[in-house]
Design goal:
mainly beta, 14-stranded parallel beta sheet
Length: about 475
């Protein structure tokens, strides 16, 4: 017995990881200060009151310091937790009352946590200087206090310098986010430090993928990208009052996202400013505001002129104002129209409502400059009389999951005008396109999986905890 007791007393000295149980904020701080790589701090059931700063502790690759709720969402955080360190994991915590989280460090991971109706303005913030933050399998819901604050209420805010931060945001559920009182209520904001209108060269290489947004109505920008060189892919937007916005920055890739407007009159798709963006393999259905909108540039650089953007192999189903080109800011009614863009392989399909006018709107008559249109289809409304768009039935069929999918008779192409052929190897659902590429976001297949649209695949899944 004495030898066994001595072994446990020597564990910290030997560098062997151990579990430590805590039951309040004070015990949590004390345990964290003593933590070594590989240690697990278990937060027992109950409420954790008072702001907490966890600083000057680092785990190691493969041996993080872990803060974990003993029972999923049973450790309830009622105040702000600020973590400064490297290789730190947080798992299964519930943020209520005024609970929030702020992170600064390298390789911090937040997973299987629950934010539900917290009264804090910002729920989760990643500070500038952080790298390789992973935010995965969390649920953010019921941000009702958006109505109590005037601005600065971004739910998830990530601040970068476009220096290869490589953050990874995936498999989260954002649900029931009420509308705020104005600007500053983005559900997810990726922003360059000090928010320059035209960020200097450099890439963040942050990946925002496989997230589910339902009734994320905080403001017009659901995801707001104010950064360079990021990947926004395979996210689902359902019944949201807003759109995915490339607001500041260049060279972002937006691919394989699905937008369902359902019955939301302000539902939108993708709004674009800046240059060098690639928008491909996205699916837009029943959007009442617009499918894709492009802003005019302004002389004060509030809106950088759209240029060198490529719209490739996207599908639009029954979207109002499908392409809005040259949207003006109210202070600058005559800006510089989008230029040097390529539109190829897209399908614009309408099977309901009055055919109406052209689905392409040049706002205030602003005509795009030096655009290329190649091998696009429109059906159900008059085409735009543009060489490169032909009026032809794409022969779609409605699948069990609600998507309009191609049939064996849907037109295809063997040749691409764009130089982005390496990114056209797969379609919206990851199916190889091969040499004969079906027009639109989906390659012809005999069956489509339903699981991609299942809300249960996203968020804090306690059964896996």
């Amino acid at each position: 017995m004495k030898k066994l007791l001595l072994f446990f007393l020597l564990l910290p000295c030997l560098g062997i990881s151990q579990n430590v149980n805590v039951s309040n904020a004070q015990e949590l701080v004390a345990a964290y200060k003593k933590a070594k790589p590989g240690d697990v701090i278990l937060l027992e059931d109950g409420s954790y009151e008072g702001a907490v700063l966890l600083d000057n502790v680092n785990g190691k690759k493969g041996a993080p310091v872990t803060l974990k709720s003993a029972g999923w969402a049973k450790a309830k955080i009622h105040s702000k937790i600020e973590i400064k360190g490297n290789f730190i994991h947080l798992e299964g915590l519930a943020f209520e009352a005024n609970g929030s989280l702020e992170l600064l460090g390298n390789s911090i991971k937040v997973s299987h946590c629950l934010w539900d109706d917290s009264k804090s303005k910002k729920w989760l913030r990643v500070q500038v200087g952080s790298t390789a933050t992973e935010i995965a399998h969390n649920t953010f819901q019921n941000k009702t206090y958006n109505s109590k604050y005037p601005k600065g209420c971004q739910l998830l805010q990530i601040v970068v310098s476009n220096k290869n931060e490589r953050h990874h945001i995936h498999h989260n559920l954002f649900k029931n986010i009420p509308e705020g009182s104005g600007n500053g209520f983005e559900t997810l904001q990726l922003i360059t430090h000090n928010n320059p209108f035209d960020p200097p060269p450099g890439a963040s290489n942050t990946v925002i993928e496989d997230n589910y947004f339902e009734r994320a109505n905080g403001e017009a920008e659901i995801i707001s990208i104010k950064s360079n060189g990021n990947f926004i892919r395979r996210n689902i937007f359902k019944n949201c009052k807003g759109s995915l916005v490339l607001r500041h920055g260049d060279n972002n890739i937006v691919s394989e996202n699905i937008f369902f407007g359902t019955d939301e009159p302000k539902s939108g798709g993708i709004r674009i400013q800046g240059s060098g963006h690639l928008v491909l393999n996205n699916y837009f259905q029943d959007l009442e505001a617009f499918g894709i909108g492009m802003m005019d540039g302004t002389p004060d650089d509030l809106y950088i002129r759209v240029s060198d953007v490529q719209l490739l192999f996207n599908t639009f189903i029954d979207c109002q104002n499908t392409l809005q080109i040259g949207i003006n800011h109210s202070k600058h009614p005559n800006g510089t129209p989008p230029m040097n863009c390529i539109v190829e392989g897209n399908v614009f399909f309408f099977d309901r409502g009055t055919p109406g006018n052209n689905f392409i709107e040049y706002v205030k008559g602003d005509r795009p400059v030096a655009w290329e249109w190649h091998n696009n289809l429109s059906f159900g409304r008059s085409n735009a009389k543009i060489s490169g768009i032909r009026n032809e039935n794409p022969q779609f069929k409605r699948s069990d999951n609600g998507l309009f999918s191609p049939s064996e008779n849907t037109p295809s192409t063997k040749r691409l005008a764009t130089d982005k052929t390496d990114l056209m190897e797969y379609d919206l659902l990851g199916k190889a396109r091969g040499k004969i590429k079906t027009l639109g976001a989906l390659q012809f297949s005999n069956g489509l999986p339903d699981t991609i649209l299942a809300e249960g695949n996203y968020g804090a899944n306690y059964s896996e905890y």
